[in-house]
Amino acid sequence: MQPGLPWLRATNRRAGRRARVGCSTSCASPRWSWTPRAASCCGARRPRSCSDTRRTRRWDSSPPGSWSTTSTSISWSSCSPTSWAPDRAGPGPSPSGARTAPPGSWSSATCGCWTTRGTSTRWGCAPTSRPCTGLERDVALSTRMIAQSPIGLAVLDTELRYVSVNAALEQLNGVPAEEHLGRTVREVVPRMDVDALEAAARRVLDTGRPVVDQSTIGRTPADPDQDHAWSISLYRLENAFGTVLGVAVSIVDVTEQYQAGIEAEAARRRLALIADASGRIGTTLDLDHTAHELAEVAVPELADIAAVDLLDAVVQGRRTSLGPAESAVIRALAVQGYDSAEALEAADQPGNVARYAHDRLVTQCVRTASPVMLPQVKDEDLPRIARSPEAAELLGRAGVHSYLAVPLIARGEVLGALDLKRTRNPLPFSEDDLLLARELAARAAVQIDNARWYQSARDTALTLQRSLLPSHPTMTGGLEVASRYQPAGATSEVGGDWFDVIELDGGKTALVVGDVMGSGIPAAATMGRLRTATNTLASLDLDPARLLEHLDKITAGLEEAIATCAYAVHDPHLRQCRIANAGHLPPVRVRAGRPPELLDLPTGVPLGVGGVAFATTTVDLEPGDRLVLYTDGLVETRRDPLDDRLDTLLSLLDGPDRPLEEVCDLLLRTLHEPDNFDDVALLIARATAPD
């Protein structure tokens, strides 16, 4: 029912009946129709003097709008009663004396009553001062509120088809209002999340429970190339009798807030990744492991493929600088990928050394010490990324679409580059990604440089220590000998363990195993000095206890040096061994037909302590018997009691006789753990019959 119907009545005296006139509803003749108008005015009651013997129409109190017939129309608005607007060309009536008028409209805050005779109409007006009713004001305010609202507003019928939209929604969707009417949301804006919207609208229709601030993402014809975010609220519309008419929808564009939220979340993830990198990179001083940690942190949060490459000269401990036309010799340390087999195949495998021409992007990165970023990789860019044409073809098939290389710089020196590629992640590298990659590279470069210098120092100490260890013959006057030296794990410095086999006069042989406390080059240097002193004293054919006393004095003269040592002299003619111990673990004797045993020797004190005499113990060593000397790195761990580990050593030695080299390998393979923080010296001698 249209506005104005409660206020318009028609009287047809000829027919003797009263009828209420509705929109496009005939009350006898002529036919009248209502057109609402948003004007701040109101009608008035018909003057009592207005009458007609044929037909009478009157407004009791009509809101702003107009009624019209084929020949007449009357408008109500807050204007003077002399304002006439013709419906077609022709002169307007005179407000003071005209009796007839062509079709048109009067604008007045008055009532109007008239009679019609044929095609002419008689007019009469009377003023009134009655104020607007609340309902009239509400209608006017509602109409303007909807029209001027900056929020998109729409009404959907029970089939979820548009029946009304306001100008704001027309602008949001980029579709004219008339093209909405009678169509569904899917037909008007198909690139939105239509399924979720329709499901929510049907729930509102079914339950009557409103939906407030439901978020949705999509694109509309107003901006088809960019995603937008909207906050949508829905509530059910009912008439006065509770009949469901449809769903009212309000839509607010919250794209700016949505983008701000995305940026805030991205910033949070970047901070979390940096915090994660601080805890995960540099857990050891192993160069390869540190590089692998960096690659693992970068994938998949930052890139789909990450490679950590160092200049080969840097790995070898040399400084280097590249000229404009000079190629870069790069050693691959780590490669990490996320579901991209072809891209991984195109990358240099860890340990490989490759030469990159001067025009390659990674060469440009390490030469200029500046990042190189290609947000969008084109086909012609792939040869500048890959090492070879074959690798470029693999990268193309893998779908590499964005590339970023960041230099690894520590203490003012370019070490290499962090090489990043995206295949599955559809987003190109951005400036924010570049900042994150540089932060990761800066943190990791320091750890890599620490590992590099430690590796260099460790290699130097290991080389020194190996040069000081003997290269003894496998056979001496009365012994068959096998030995092993196992450095500590890569995360620990080289220790001061040593062994020696010294041939003496009369077919005798001296066996020595020692352990200098400490690690690194100082321990290796102390070990070399003690080994030299032992060789010199052994040539004097001193009693083992006497020899340890001299070594104790020499060790005490060294700066902060302490060492343990077991010294034994084998005499094949007497079939005996004389042994003295300076705080070392006891040797093991293995005899045919008997279980292995730890020799019961006076423990003594370490060399360098002083003040305690050493003692010599003589034990039998028949041909075929074996004597096993070792350092504590073979049996000591942080988890197991020493007695249990010694029992394991004895059980491994208890069994069928086998070659000494195999026994050495068995003991190291079984007892020495990969994460052991101490090195191992092992010496096994089997007595033979004298020549």
TrEMBL record:
Top-level enzyme category: hydrolase
EC number per UniProt: 3.1.3.16
Catalysed reactions, as listed in the record: O-phospho-L-seryl-[protein] + H2O = L-seryl-[protein] + phosphate
One Pfam family in the UniProt entry: PAS_4
Biased amino acid composition, Low complexity: 61-86
Chain positions covered by the region annotation Disordered: 42-108
InterPro entries membership: Bact_Sigma-Reg (IPR052016), GAF (IPR003018), GAF-like_dom_sf (IPR029016), PAS (IPR000014), PAS-like_dom_sf (IPR035965), PAS_4 (IPR013656), PPM-type-like_dom_sf (IPR036457), PPM-type_phosphatase-like_dom (IPR001932)
Keyword terms of this UniProt record: ATP-binding, Hydrolase, Kinase, Magnesium, Manganese, Metal-binding, Nucleotide-binding, Phosphoprotein, Protein phosphatase, Transferase
Segments of skewed composition (Basic and acidic residues): 49-60
UniProt cross-references to Gene3D superfamilies, sorted A to Z: 3.30.450.40, PAS domain (3.30.450.20), PPM-type phosphatase domain (3.60.40.10)
Signal peptide start and end residues: none
Domain of life: Bacteria
Boundaries of every PAS domain copy: 138-208
MF term (GO), any: metal ion binding
General function of this protein: Primarily acts as an independent SigF regulator that is sensitive to the osmosensory signal, mediating the cross talk of PknD with the SigF regulon. Possesses both phosphatase and kinase activities. The kinase domain functions as a classic anti-sigma factor-like kinase to phosphorylate the anti-anti-sigma factor domain at the canonical regulatory site, and the phosphatase domain antagonizes this activity.
Name the UniProt record assigns to this protein: protein-serine/threonine phosphatase
Gene source species: Streptomyces viridochromogenes (strain DSM 40736 / JCM 4977 / BCRC 1201 / Tue 494)
